[in-house]
Structures are given as structure tokens and as C-alpha cells.
């Protein structure tokens, strides 16, 4: 943690450094890599065991993919249906075209309540619109209530995973944060003691803060119901005790019918945390007299989502139910952790979601942050073909670069132009090979390998050896062989 | 409405333009929905007895305590669970049968209890709507025997009475039992838990830390 200041991650795609650059501090931090690796190993093992026992796993995936695709294809109608039913049940639906409008709506609602404090259920969507700093600046204290989010909020850290956002922090780091921020000098680093400290810390907040903010895992068009999936009970506290509840939800979260939850809930728990079912699911519809918040608002957020809808290939990105199985399975995420992705949505889903939410104006390095191994597609419970979308986005980024004059200074571009020239005619190619043999000769060792090159060539040999050019190429060998035969 | 109508219109226009090639009218939408593949397991394959055993096993994996009883013995079973808890103050929803409320305890019946009154209670006694054996899940619809959401949230100790006829094997079987979707529902699969610190599962964060289930063979 001593490097925290110098390497504080930036999760705003508009100002975050490109992926390869942002990944460096992570790759050089063995503690962080160990924490991430351990957490992922645990989740992966649990998930694998529970998926294997489910005989209808593939059928569930097929159904879920079809339901989500159908919902997105008919998104307009289902959103209107959700709005009508939620309103009829006593809720108020607001529409936010972008992050700043969503922030303004929420602040306006809080002002109507004279709220100076707000309790929050973990919501990545609120991190996406950077709600907390905005509310704090406007004089509203925000209290995160999910254990991982408390660790990050008190430790001034950033989420690195969408299900277990503090998986990069280990117990002694948590102990240090809690001891310092909660004033508990004698706190031990036992996870049970740390959890108890969080329970005590929040209990009074739950009982006294009258306004809460949540995200939504699903919105049900048929009934106007909202679903929140959780483990700790902090969600239930926020959904039950306050007077007013504000739910921020992306427009893509809608499901056609209540019964569709029978598919989604089975897939989500197993994929996300490797449980048959997470401890708590809460479903509520508008306002219920005498039970829970008596004022209920839903803020439906677009913020770039509708721009992803038109292309069928890209539209599948919005099927995502935020289980994080893709990042747990990803060999790249495993090495870099989440912060390198420069967005609150890391891993393979982040690599396709973030640039698209930015309408391809930012985060263009992310589609390349993948080995295209396909592990993410294999585990995805709603069958998002992430490699296919990655390739599509890579093509778009390349097309964008084609229009930039600066490409003439890009070594990669220049190299490929030269290669294009060399490969076009056999005689040019052979001449180039001849020059290459002479030029590389001094760097080639006796074993036929080049271990180091000067200048730009060093970029290759820094991390791997290069085969030297053989003294005879295939054409020459073939010609010599035929001559001998005669 | 604090949001200008303009944003709703703008978002809807963008969605409609983007999906015009694939979105159907209401008839096409219904037909396309009806044709969605649903070849997953709907009905379980276990016998009624094996299904109950599975539920008990799952609940015990979650560290819930489970006892079985008959309808006749139920009041006695409740009394013995209450006695074993060592607790004295309990809340209960208004619709529970009078014979469930064993004598000798301080019962606060929820005819509009305040949050503070519920918070002071050491335990809560409720019925349930359904239980799903496959995942060890108890489903509450918050009727007047299951209690407002508050009741099963603040007290640290929850005693839940479940009838065997309420137990289904799979999650889809629960949804089959809801021709009218509930306005409120909470599913409980074991006590409140977290694995946020080094993926170590810790029981009891904010919800009740102790779950006891009485399974009534009816």
C-alpha cells in the first residue's frame, strides 16, 4: 500500500492511460498479483464444481441468451411496460440520457428529501456515473454498505472486480484501513473480526439514515418489479429501513416476465460466486404500504447504451448480467487485475463494454487487451461471444486510425507498410532477405538465435529471442535440390 | 417528474431507431417470446421424501439448524426451539396461529411495530411461502404469517416454520406456484454471509446470523 499514492488507479476511461501502460504498475506489484490470483482461484474452483453438478447448465445458458436477446430487440416496448407497471405500483420513473443527467436527477431527489446522508447498496452503475464524488461535493455524505465497498471507500481505493471489488486487498491491508478509519487500534486481521467491525460500524447508519440508493440486477417489465441480488443483508437493510429508495438502473436490465428470473437467478449465483444460490434475493414492486420505503424512484440510465443496440454483433454486449465469470476466467485479467482496464468494468466484458459506452472515442486500447483465447465466451452464462465483439471493435479502432495523419509516425504502421511492399514482388522479397542476412549476421549467435538487437529491434529481443535468418531460404534449397537430382 | 420529458423521448427514439429492424409489434413480440427455447429442467426428478432430505441437507450445509415434526407436535417443537435459544423477546407477524406463540416469552406482535421495537427483539418466528430443495432456499412473500421485511431482517435469530407441502425441488417449480407474481419477495439461502476478505466465507454480516427451520410433515 506504500505505493498507493504513486500508482492510484484511474477508472475514468476518458483520462485513463492506455491498457499496456496502466497494466505496468500492477505487473510490478507482486502482492497485488498474489491477492488477485488467490481470489480468482477460489471462485473458479467453486464455480467449476457447481456448474458441473448442474445437468441442464447448457440449456439454461441457451434460454438465458435467448431471453436477453429478445428483451434487447424489443427494448423500447419492454421499458415502456416496466415504466407503466412500476408507476401503477407507486414508483416514479425518471430517464437519464447520460451520466451528468443521472447525477442531477439523483441530487434533485435527495434535495427534495433534505437528505444530508445516504446509504448505498453496491452498484457498479453508480460508479460508472461517478456518483459518490458528485454527491460528496454537493454536501451529501455517502455510506457504502457492502463490505468490499466499505474497504474501498474508507481506504480510498478503486474497485478492481465487479462482484468482489476489493479482491486485490488482503486481510492485513483491510485491518490497517479499518483500524485507522474506524478508530479501532486493537483490531485483529481475522476476517471474522473485520466483518464484525463493519457490522457495528453500519448498524446505526441503517437505522437512522432515511434515504438509500441501490442498483438493480433485473427489472421485470410484466410487473414493474426490481430485483437485487446480494449476500450480506446490507441490501435488505437499505431496501427495508429507509423512507426513500432511489434505484439507478441501466436501460438494458429489463426482462420481459417475472418467470424469466427462474433462469437468471440460477445462472447468476453459480457464475458469480460459485454458490447454488446467493444468501439473499430481494424483489419489490413500487411501494408496499406499511412495508419498506414509502417513496420509490427508478432512474433509467442510457449513457451510451442505446448506441450499442443497432449492430447485432455489438448488441450482445448488453445481454451481460454482471456475474464476472469472464474476468475470473481471463488469463489477461489474472495477470493485471482490474485497475489496468481504466474503467469500473474490467476484464473481458469491460474490454468490450467500456469503449462502446464511450462510443469508441476513448479506451481504444481495451479491445486489444485480450489473447482471444475464448475462455470468457465459454463461461458466459448468457453466451456473449466476447472474442467476436473484440475483433469487431479492433477493426473499428484500426479504421479510426486510418484517418489519422499521425499514423505515419507509428512504427507498427510503417513496419506493416514496408512489409506490404516487400511481400508484393518475389524479387524484392529475395533481395530483402539477402540484405537481412547480411545485416543480422553480426547479431546472430552460433546457436542460430539473436539474443539482442539495437534500437527498435530491442523491443522484440527485450522479452524474447529471435531466430536468425538461415543461410539458405526455401527457394534456394529447392532449386539446389533439383539441380542435384539432374 | 424531475427529468425533462425530452430525455425520455430522446432515449426512446434512439432505442427505436436502433432496433427498428428487429423489434416486432405486440403480436410478433408475444409470438417471439413464446418461441424462446426453454429446455432446462423444470420439474425435479426426486421422490417427495428424497426432496425433503435434500432440502434438509442443503440447509444444514448453510449452518441452519433443522428439526422435523408433525402438525400435532408443532407447538411443542416451536416451544423447544425457543427454549433452546436462551432468548426471551420475540417478534411475530400478526397472522400466526395462537398456539405457535408459546407461553412464557415476551411476544411483540407486529400490528405496526416501530423499527426500534423490532430491533430490540432477540428473535423472530414466521411461516414461509415456499422452499426450494435444490439450492436450500426459503422464499418469503411477506404475507401476514411471513411478516413484513423488517421482521426477518433485524432480529439476529430467525425461526421459520415450513410445511413439507411447501417444498419444491427446483427453482422453476417455485415460479410455477406463483401464477400471480408477488409484489414483494425475499429468498433466503442460508444466513447472511460475505467472502469479501480473501474469499473467506464469514457468516453473519447484517442479516440474522442464526436460522432455525422447523419442517412440518403434513
Write the layout of secondary structure elements.
The complex is a heterodimer of chains A (486) and B (218).
Chain A: H1 19-27, H2 30-53, H3 57-73, H4 75-88, E1 92-96, H5 99-112, E2 117-120, H6 124-128, H7 131-137, E3 141-144, H8 147-155, H9 171-182, H10 191-208, E4 211-214, E5 218-220, E6 225-230, H11 234-240, E7 244-250, E8 254-255, H12 261-273, E9 280-285, E10 295-301, H13 312-315, H14 325-329, H15 331-336, H16 347-357, H17 375-379, H18 386-402, H19 411-424, H20 426-440, E11 449-450, H21 458-461, E12 466-467, H22 474-485
Helix pairs in contact in A: 2-12, 3-12, 9-10, 16-18, 19-20
Chain B: H1 5-19, H2 26-34, H3 48-61, E1 65-69, H4 74-85, E2 89-92, E3 106-109, H5 115-120, E4 123-127, E5 130-132, E6 137-140, E7 157-163, E8 167-168, H6 171-176, E9 184-188, E10 193-194, E11 202-203, E12 210-216
Parallel strand pairs in B: 1-12, 2-3, 2-4, 4-7, 5-8, 7-12
Antiparallel strand pairs in B: 5-6, 6-9, 10-11
Could you please describe the fold and organization of this structure?
The complex is a heterodimer of chains A (486) and B (218). With 486 residues, chain A is α/β, with parallel strands linked by helices. Among the domains of chain A are: 78-306, NagB/RpiA/CoA transferase-like (Rossmann fold); 411-485, no CATH class. In chain A, 50% of the residues lie in helices and 11% in strands. Chain A is built from 22 helices and 12 strands. Chain A has helices at 19-27, 30-53, 57-73, 75-88, 99-112, 124-128, 131-137, 147-155, 171-182, 191-208, 234-240, 261-273, 312-315, 325-329, 331-336, 347-357, 375-379, 386-402, 411-424, 426-440, 458-461, 474-485, and strands at residues 92-96, 117-120, 141-144, 211-214, 218-220, 225-230, 244-250, 254-255, 280-285, 295-301, 449-450, 466-467. In chain A, the strands form 3 sheets. Chain A has a 6-stranded parallel β-sheet with strand order 1-10-7-4-2-3, sandwiched between helices. Chain A has a 4-stranded mixed β-sheet with strand order 8-5-6-9. In chain A, a hairpin with a 4-residue loop joins strand 5 and strand 6 (225-230). In chain A, helix 2 (30-53) packs across helix 12 (261-273), helix 3 packs across helix 12 and helix 16 packs across helix 18 (386-402). The longest helix of chain A has 24 residues, at 30-53. The radius of gyration of chain A is 27 Å and the shape is elongated. Chain A starts with 18 loop residues before the first helix and ends with a helix. Residues 1-6 of chain A have low confidence and may be disordered. Chain B is of the alpha/beta class. Chain B has 2 domains: 5-34, no CATH class; 48-216, Rossmann fold (3-Layer(aba) Sandwich). Chain B contains 6 helices and 12 strands. Chain B has helices at residues 5-19, 26-34, 48-61, 74-85, 115-120, 171-176; strands at residues 65-69, 89-92, 106-109, 123-127, 130-132, 137-140, 157-163, 167-168, 184-188, 193-194, 202-203, 210-216. In chain B, strands 1-12-7-4-2-3 form a 6-stranded parallel β-sheet, sandwiched between helices. In chain B, a hairpin with a 7-residue loop joins strand 10 and strand 11. The longest helix of chain B is centred in the first third of the chain and has 15 residues, at 5-19. Chain B is globular, with a radius of gyration of 22 Å. Classes of the chains: A alpha/beta (486), B alpha/beta (218). Chains A and B meet through helix 2, helix 3, helix 4, strand 1 and helix 5 of A and helix 1, helix 2, helix 5, helix 6 and strand 9 of B.
Amino acid at each position: 500500500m506504500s505505493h498507493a499514492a504513486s500508482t492510484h488507479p484511474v477508472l475514468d476511461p476518458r483520462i485513463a492511460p492506455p491498457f499496456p501502460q496502466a497494466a505496468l504498475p500492477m505487473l510490478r506489484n507482486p502482492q497485488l498479483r498474489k491477492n488477485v490470483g488467490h481470489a480468482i482461484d477460489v471462485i473458479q474452483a467453486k464455480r467449476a464444481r457447481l456448474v458441473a453438478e448442474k445437468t441442464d447448465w447448457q440449456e439454461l445458458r441457451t434460454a438465458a441468451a435467448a431471453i436477453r436477446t429478445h428483451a434487447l430487440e424489443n427494448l423500447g416496448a419492454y421499458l415502456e411496460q416496466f415504466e407503466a407497471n412500476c408507476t401503477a405500483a407507486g414508483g416514479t420513473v425518471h430517464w437519464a440520457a447520460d451520466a451528468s443527467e443521472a447525477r442531477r436527477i439523483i441530487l434533485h431527489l435527495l434535495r427534495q428529501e433534505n437528505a444530508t446522508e445516504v446509504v448505498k447498496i453496491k452498484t457498479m452503475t453508480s460508479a460508472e456515473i461517478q456518483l459518490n464524488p458528485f454527491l460528496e461535493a454537493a454536501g451529501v455524505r455517502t455510506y457504502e454498505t457492502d463490505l468490499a465497498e466499505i474497504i474501498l471507500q474508507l481506504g480510498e481505493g478503486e474497485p478492481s472486480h465487479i462482484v468482489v471489488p476489493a479482491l486485490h486487498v488482503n486481510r492485513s491491508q483491510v485491518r490497517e484501513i479499518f483500524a485507522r478509519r474506524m478508530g479501532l487500534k486493537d483490531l485483529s486481521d481475522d476476517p471474522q473480526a473485520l466483518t464484525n467491525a463493519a457490522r457495528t460500524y453500519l448498524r446505526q447508519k441503517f437505522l437512522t439514515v432515511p434515504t438509500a440508493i441501490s442498483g438493480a440486477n433485473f427489472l421485470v417489465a410484466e410487473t414493474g418489479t426490481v430485483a437485487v441480488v446480494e449476500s450480506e443483508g446490507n441490501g435488505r437493510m437499505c431496501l427495508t429501513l429507509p423512507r426513500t429508495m432511489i434505484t439507478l438502473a441501466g436501460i438494458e436490465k429489463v426482462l420481459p416476465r417475472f418467470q424469466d428470473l427462474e433462469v437468471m437467478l440460477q445462472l447468476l449465483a453459480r457464475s458469480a460466486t460459485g454458490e447454488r444460490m446467493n444468501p439473499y434475493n430481494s424483489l419489490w414492486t413500487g411501494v408496499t404500504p406499511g412495508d419498506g420505503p414509502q417513496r420509490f424512484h427508478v432512474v433509467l440510465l442510457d449513457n451510451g447504451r442505446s448506441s450499442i443496440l443497432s449492430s447485432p454483433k455489438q448488441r450482445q454486449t448488453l445481454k451481460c448480467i454482471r456475474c464476472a465469470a469472464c474476468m475470473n476466467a481471463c488469463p489477461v485479467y489474472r495477470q493485471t487485475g482490474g485497475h489496468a482496464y481504466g474503467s469500473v468494468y474490467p476484464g473481458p466484458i469491460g474490454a468490450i463494454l467500456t469503449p462502446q459506452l464511450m462510443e469508441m472515442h476513448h479506451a481504444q486500447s481495451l479491445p486489444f487487451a485480450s489473447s482471444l483465447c475464448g475462455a470468457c465466451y465459454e463461461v458466459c452464462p448468457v453466451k456473449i461471444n466476447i472474442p467476436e465483439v473484440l475483433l469487431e471493435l479492433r477493426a473499428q479502432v484500426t479504421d479510426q486510425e486510418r484517418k489519422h495523419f499521425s499514423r505515419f509516425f507509428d512504427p507498427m504502421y510503417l513496419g506493416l507498410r514496408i512489409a506490404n511492399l516487400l511481400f508484393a514482388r518475389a524479387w524484392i522479397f529475395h533481395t530483402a532477405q539477402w540484405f537481412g542476412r547480411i545485416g543480422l549476421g553480426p547479431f546472430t549467435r552460433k546457436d542460430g538465435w539473436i539474443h539482442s538487437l539495437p534500437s527498435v529491434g530491442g523491443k522484440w529481443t527485450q522479452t524474447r529471442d529471435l531466430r536468425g535468418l538461415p543461410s539458405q531460404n526455401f527457394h534456394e534449397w529447392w532449386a539446389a535440390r533439383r539441380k542435384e537430382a539432374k | 417528474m424531475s427529468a425533462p420529458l425530452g430525455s425520455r423521448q430522446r432515449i426512446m427514439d434512439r432505442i427505436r431507431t436502433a432496433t427498428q429492424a428487429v423489434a416486432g409489434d405486440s403480436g410478433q413480440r408475444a409470438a417471439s417470446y413464446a418461441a424462446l427455447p426453454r429446455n432446462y429442467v423444470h420439474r425435479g426428478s426426486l421422490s417427495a421424501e428424497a426432496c425433503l432430505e435434500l432440502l434438509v441437507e442443503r440447509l444444514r450445509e448453510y449452518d441452519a439448524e433443522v428439526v422435523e415434526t408433525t402438525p400435532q407436535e408443532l407447538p411443542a417443537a416451536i416451544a423447544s426451539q425457543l427454549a433452546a435459544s436462551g432468548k426471551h423477546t420475540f417478534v411475530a407477524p400478526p397472522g400466526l396461529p395462537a398456539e405457535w406463540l408459546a407461553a412464557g416469552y415476551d411476544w411483540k406482535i407486529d400490528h405496526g411495530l416501530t423499527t426500534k421495537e423490532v430491533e430490540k427483539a432477540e428473535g423472530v418466528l414466521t411461516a414461509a411461502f415456499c422452499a426450494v430443495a435444490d439450492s436450500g432456499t426459503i422464499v418469503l412473500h411477506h404475507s401476514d404469517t411471513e411478516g413484513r421485511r423488517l421482521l426477518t431482517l433485524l432480529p439476529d435469530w430467525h425461526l421459520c416454520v415450513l410445511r413439507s407441502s411447501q417444498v419444491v425441488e427446483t427453482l422453476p417449480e417455485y415460479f410455477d406456484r406463483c401464477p400471480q407474481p408477488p409484489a414483494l419477495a425475499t429468498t433466503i439461502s442460508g444466513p447472511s454471509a460475505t467472502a469479501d476478505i480473501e474469499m473467506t466465507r464469514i457468516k453473519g454480516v447484517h442479516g440474522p446470523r442464526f436460522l432455525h427451520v422447523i419442517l412440518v410433515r403434513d
